[in-house]
Structure formats: C-alpha cells, structure tokens
UniProtKB/TrEMBL annotation:
This is Hypoxanthine phosphoribosyltransferase. Purine salvage pathway enzyme that catalyzes the transfer of the ribosyl-5-phosphate group from 5-phospho-alpha-D-ribose 1-diphosphate (PRPP) to the N9 position of the 6-oxopurines hypoxanthine and guanine to form the corresponding ribonucleotides IMP (inosine 5'-monophosphate) and GMP (guanosine 5'-monophosphate), with the release of PPi. Pfam families: Pribosyltran. It is found in: Cytoplasm. The lineage of its organism: Bacteria, Bacillati, Bacillota, Bacilli, Lactobacillales. It comes from Ligilactobacillus salitolerans. GO terms for biological process: GMP salvage; guanine salvage; hypoxanthine metabolic process; IMP salvage; purine ribonucleoside salvage.
Amino acid sequence: MNNDIEKILYSADDIHEVAKKLGKQITADYADKNPLVVCILKGAILFMSDIVRQIDTYCELDFMSVSSYGNAQVSSGSVKIIKDLDVSVEDRNVLIIEDIIDTGQTLQTLVDLFGHRKAKSVKICTLLDKKERRVKAVKPDYIGFKVPNEFVVGYGLDYLGHYRNLPYVGILKPEIYSEN
Ligand SMILES: O=P(O)(O)OC[C@H]1O[C@H](OP(=O)(O)OP(=O)(O)O)[C@H](O)[C@@H]1O
Ligand code: HPA
Ligand SMILES: [Mg+2]
C-alpha cells in the first residue's frame, strides 16, 4: 500500500506536532465550557483520536457519520447523514473535528444543522484546509495545514475506501487512478 504513494505531504511527526499545537489552543479556549467534541466519520477518525488526547479540559465526545463523495473524487453536492449524534446539541458548545474541508459543503450543512438545533456555539477544527476548491464560505477556527488543490489520501482520507490507515497524508501515483 505504501508503494502506491507518490509523495508524502505531512508525515506522522508533522501531524503529531500540529495536533499538540491545536490541542493547547483548544484547551485554553474551552476551559470550563465542557464542549461536545464531534467527530465526522469516517474521515476524521484518526485526527479525532489524536487531538482529544491533546485536550486537557473536561469534554464529551460524540460521532456523526456523513458522506457526500461516495467513491468519487468530486463531491456529489448532497450531504447524506448516515449516523446522527447520540446526544442533543441544544445549549452546548460544539467543536467539530474534520479531516478536510474541500468544497465546504459538508461543514456548511453541519454548521447550519447544529445552529438549527440551537447549539450555543459551533466551531470547526480541521486537519486540512483545501481553500482553493471552496464553494461554501466555511471558515475553520483551528487549521492543521493548508493543503494544495490535489486529491490527498491517508490519515483517515480514502480513495475508493482504501488508504485511511496510512499514518501520514500523501498523494497517490497517477497510475493508481488510471487502474480504476
Ligand atoms: O468540503 P467537502 O467538499 O464537503 O469535503 C469534505 C468531506 O468529504 C470527505 O468525506 P466523505 O463524504 O468522502 O465521507 P468519509 O469521511 O466517510 O470518507 C471528508 O472526510 C470531509 O468530511
Ligand atoms: O482530497 C481529498 N481526499 C480524500 N477525500 C476527500 N474528500 C474531500 N476531499 C478529499
Ligand atoms: Mg468525511
């Protein structure tokens, strides 16, 4: 599987360092706020598990599964909720954890939804921000890395369901796409 990677953009060490830095900021910003930290499955699973271990204040965790890409490299534009949260966001300080903001359609849908459900505040922490492709004006509050306009895989991000388990973020060799 590692052989399919053309270039590593962010190594496991790079990601660990950035999670530490963001965790410190989140700890300071959310002291005494008991945030509801929401992982957007599946992509954010690895980032969630790393970032919450860097947050040194009381918080609760919940998980939501949404999908808009399926097996494609471009968003279908419609965001499907596959699994909703277990708890109510009403009057809660919600911190959304994402792997990547690309067009912004996923996050825009969720920010609108949590607002509609009367969350007290909604902030976004994303490992990657692919700003060039934005069609919705979503602004993350915590950003790991600004990523170039390329399809990336690893550390939660998939191509056809694979590569989520790579410990780093990289770009696939062009022949991998032509084989599919
Ligand atoms: O900003 P956008 O253009 O909406 O793209 C970003 C979203 O797309 C990917 O999820 P996907 O829908 O592929 O589901 P997955 O997390 O289960 O892979 C990614 O994990 C983000 O959640
Ligand atoms: O660059 C990406 N890679 C994998 N999944 C994605 N979902 C949105 N953008 C991406
Ligand atoms: Mg996702």
